[in-house]
Amino acid sequence: MPYTLQGRNVLITGGSRGLGAEIARKFAAEGSNIAINYHSKEAPAKELSRELESQYHIKTTVLQGDAGNVSDIERCVRETVESLGGLDIIIGNAGWTRFSQFDNLDDLSYDEWDKCWNTNVKGNHALLKTAMPIFQANPDGGVFIMTSSVAGKSLSGSSMAYSVTKAAQIHLMKCLANTQGPKSGGKVRVNAILPGLLLTDWGNLYGEERIAGLKNMAALKRETKLDDCAQTFVDVAKNTSWTGQAIHIDSGLNVGHM
């Protein structure tokens, strides 16, 4: 039987704005209930919650939490189950970086390196670790999709710490897919989506010159369309033969580096 999304319960970290909000809309349009996690700005999360409930007649909940803090992650998983009545799909969309120069080893502090690691790598490990008993109890198991980046496949991105931790995140995804899936007695599919340049509020911080350069570098000579990228999360969630995959949605930016 196909894995339908109608009535599924979905937790999206970093789900209130940008790509996370668009992913929420895509799953809500499929009839899924949505838990919207945010870190510090409640208003956009509340606004999105109202939009989804009004337009798609689904259940939502809004959860504050730092996606790099294990205690917050555990609480968000628990509160998702309490509010929505279960948990079927996790989208690990939250990430952290700060624009800095690759060639300046002093440009990021070690505290910032730790924050990058905690959010981009350890936080995703904690998400699945916390959710595994729930997924194991579900008749159809669970789905875990991470938002990674083409920066994890090339020496690029907003910072060296971001590129390095995104590479580690991709390796984590493969480890989890192999060790927590049916081959090892688990019931979860794990994949990662690797966007290229997305012109969200955050992506626009690259500035006009850098954005033009990234567009020109891509095989399609344009940015990654936000709608296309968000739709891929839905497609991957539905596809029961997909696990352990790092899926580029980048307008050919990765091959443009070759």
Class of secondary structure makeup: alpha/beta
| Major β-sheet profile | 7 strands, parallel
CATH superfamily: NAD(P)-binding Rossmann-like Domain
Q: What's the helix count?
A: 8
CATH architecture: 3-Layer(aba) Sandwich
Taken as a percent bin, the fraction of beta residues is 5-15%
Termini separation: 40 Å
Helix content: 40-55%
Shape: globular
Radius of gyration from the alpha-carbon trace, in angstroms: 17 Å
How many domains? 1
Low-confidence stretches: none
Count of strand segments: 7
Determine and state the CATH class.
Alpha Beta
Order of helices and strands: EHEHEHEHEHEHHEH
Mean pLDDT: 94
Which fold name is given in CATH as the topology? Rossmann fold
Written account of the structure:
By secondary structure, the chain is of the alpha/beta class. It has a single domain, classed as Rossmann fold. Helices cover 46% and strands 15% of the residues. It has a seven-stranded parallel β-sheet, sandwiched between helices. Helix 4 links the parallel strand 4 and strand 5. The chain is globular. The termini are far apart. Pfam families: adh_short_C2. Belongs to the short-chain dehydrogenases/reductases (SDR) family. Keywords: NADP, Oxidoreductase. GO terms for molecular function: oxidoreductase activity. This is Short chain dehydrogenase.
Question: What are the main properties of this structure?
Answer:
8 helices, Rossmann fold, 258 residues, alpha/beta, seven-stranded parallel beta sheet, 15% strand
